[in-house]
Structure formats: structure tokens, C-alpha cells
Design brief:
Distance between the termini: 13 Å
Order of helices and strands: HH
Shape: elongated
Structural class: mainly alpha
Oligomer: single chain
Radius of gyration: 12 Å
Largest sheet: none
Number of strands: 0
């Protein structure tokens, strides 16, 4: 149960970071790279 909640949280946070990172690539005011790195960190720590 706790593992499923943790995975779901990581997917949601990773998706939000990826979305902000993609927006940051297009807009010059928002840095995109840190958000994309945070998204990658969220997605790589998912447990099967």
C-alpha cells in the first residue's frame, strides 16, 4: 500500500516537473534543465 502511494506520488511529481521543464525550454524566464532533471530523478526511482 505504502509503495503504491509512493510510486503514484513520484509519477505525479515527475509529470509536473516534466511539464514545467518543457515549458521552460520554450520560455526564456523559466529554467528547463533543473525541472527535467528532477523529473528524471522521480521516474528512475520508481519501484516495480
Amino acid at each position: 500500500m505504502f509503495k503504491q502511494l509512493r510510486n503514484a506520488t513520484r509519477v505525479v511529481v515527475g509529470s509536473l516537473c516534466a511539464a514545467v521543464g518543457m515549458i521552460g525550454i520554450l520560455l526564456p524566464l523559466i529554467p528547463g534543465t533543473p525541472f527535467l532533471l528532477a523529473a528524471a530523478a522521480c521516474f528512475c526511482t520508481l519501484e516495480p
